[in-house]
Amino acid sequence: NLPGVRVQPWGALLDASAGPVAVTVTYRDIGAIMYTSGTTGPSKGVLMPHAHLHLFGQEEARWLRLVPEDVYYICMPLFHANALFMQLYGTLVAGAKAVVVPAFSASRWLDDIRKYGATVTNTLGVMTEFVFRQPPRPEDRQHRLRLVLAVPGPAEIAQAFMERFQTQIIEAYGMTEINIPVHGRIDSPFKAGSCGQVNEDYFEVRIADPETDEEVPRGALGEIVCRPKEPFAFMAGYNGMPDRTVEAWRNFWFHTGDAGRMDADGYVYFVDRLRDTIRRRGENLSSYEIERVLAEHPSVAEVAAVAVKSALPGGEDEVKVCIVLRPDRQVQPVELLDWCAQRMPHFAVPRYVEFVPALPKTPTQKVQKAILREQGLTSGTWDREQAGYRVRRGA
User: Fold this and answer.
1) How many Å apart are CA 252 and CA 225, to the nearest integer?
2) CA–CA distance, 209 with 230 (Å, rounded to integer)
3) Beta bridge partners of 267
4) What is the C-alpha separation between 237 and 394, in angstroms, rounded?
């Protein structure tokens, strides 16, 4: 009983002698049910009208300036909105060529870009960094790639990535539920870490106080909230989950659950998932900022920072980091904390360190932090307080 869905008997669909089944489809009808990644909990089925699906492709074709001569290299799974609607649908809208490969491979990425003559591609999460970590090659600039839509484009390496591969990076911000309301522009000034500016033709976006839903001043941190200007160009709700639909839609705004800010020029910056924000000693910490520092350590391949409930009253947290080491590398927790102490405020330095063989991920390579939070402290967790380690202020 989905809104806008016309049900035909299964037998009629299988009976070829009955001739074609006439079904009138409009932009208002549900065209897909796509499940969210489940990084913070159980996946939710997003009801996506045809207008919503088309807008993904239409706007990517516009902002990326796709033309029939373009070749879009797609290495993400087609059950993800980024690959299916932003990339493949955008290619269809522009009349361009799509090259779809079975899976992303950092070591094969450049070879594929060159082999297929790709001019445009998307990266998601850690993909950009994994490509950048590959050993430099003489062929790094010998390709046709003009543009990478990176979600996100890591601020620390974005400029170096563009110089090394002689290509342009732009960013965007969106969700399966809300389309892509914020997008970088090819001709706009590049601001490292920014998702771009609001697509005001189709969306309204504001940064709101997560407690009151009132807009915060420019530059202040809050929750990214959004609403459409066109009917049906947005999700129609969560399939079979009316309570979650109502929870997300409050005070006429869709609440993304993402923390962000907007600068004076209207550029939007994603900071963290609100649930991933850690409160320690009265300070709100971004897990992303902690991860960014540790990811720069030469022995660290991947890292995820999560909150562990403190024994102190008042809802305080402690910081735990789960570390995947690079092959053939060894490092002691003390060395990692010394590294942190030189590069972040003392109150942000993690208390707990655990080395793990791999981080739990979704098929689109997003870290499932909900699993890490549920695991909490384990027998393999190192505690700096039990070890007698003291963070040196101003180290």
Assistant:
1) 10
2) 25
3) 197
4) 49
Burial of 189 (0-12, 13-18, 19+ CB in 10 A): exposed
Per the DSSP assignment, residues forming a β-bridge with 100 are 74
168 three-class SS: strand
- pLDDT of 190 over the 70 cut: yes
Which distant-in-sequence residues (6+ apart) come within 8 Å of 196 by Cβ?
A: 170, 171, 172, 173, 182, 183, 184, 185, 188, 267, 268
Tokens representing 275 are 């649930």
H-helix or E-strand containing 46?
strand 45-49
For residues 196 and 60, what is the distance between their CA atoms, to the nearest angstrom?
Answer: 13
Q: What is the mean pLDDT of residues 185-196?
A: 90
What is the pTM assigned to this prediction?
A: 0.73
Query: What's the CA gap between 163 and 180, in Å, rounded?
Result: 27
DSSP notation for 208-250: E-TTT-PBPPTT--EEEEEEESSTTSS--EETT-HHHHHHHEE
Task: Decide if 213 contacts 256 (C-beta within 8 A).
Answer: no
For the segment 28-40, what is each residue's pLDDT rounded down to a tens digit?
999 999 988 554 5
What does residue 110 show for φ and ψ, rounded to 5 degrees? -65, -40
Alpha helices, H only, the chain: 10-14, 50-63, 81, 90-94, 106-116, 127-132, 158-165, 242-248, 287-295, 333-341, 369-375
Largest CA distance in the chain: 80
Mean pLDDT of 124-142: 90
Q: Mean pLDDT over residues 175-188, rounded?
A: 95
Closest C-alpha to 139, from 175, 114, 106, 120:
114
